Amino acid sequence: MQLLREWAMTAGWAMVGAICLAIAAFVVVRLFDRLTPGKSELESVHEGNIAAAILLGSLILALAIVIASAIRLL
C-alpha cells in the first residue's frame, strides 16, 4: 500500500511539473519573442530554421531544469 501511495505522489508531482512547464514555456517564449526585434522565432522555426529551433529548445530545456529543481525542494 505504501508503494502505491508513493507512485501516486510521484505521478501527482509529475503533473504539477508538466503544467508549470507548459505555462512557463508559453510565457517565456512569448516574452523572448517580444524582446528580440525583427522576425518572430516561432515563424523562423516553422520555416525550417534549425538555429532558431535549437535556441528555443535550449530555452525550454533551461526552464525545465529550473522548474524541476524548484519542485524537488517541495
Blueprint of the fold:
Blueprint: H1 2-35, H2 41-46, H3 50-73
The poorly predicted ranges are: none
Please state roughly what percent of the residues sit in beta strands, choosing from under 5%, 5-15%, 15-25%, 25-35%, 35-45% or over 45%. Answer: under 5%
Query: Outline, from the CA principal axes?
Result: elongated
Query: What is the arithmetic mean of pLDDT?
Result: 89
Order of helices and strands: HHH
What fraction, in percent, of the residue positions are helical?
over 70%
How would a textbook summarize the main sheet? none
Number of domains: 1
Distance between the termini: 23 Å
Alpha carbon gyration radius: 16 Å
Q: Would you count the extended β strands for me?
A: 0
Number of helices: 3
Structural class designation: mainly alpha
Model description:
By secondary structure, the protein is an all-alpha fold. The protein is 86% helix and 0% strand. Helix 1 (2-35) packs across helix 3. The longest helix has 34 residues, at 2-35. The radius of gyration is 16 Å and the shape is elongated. It starts with a helix and ends with a helix.
Q: Which features does this protein show?
A:
74 residues; mainly alpha; 3 helices; 86% helix; 0% strand
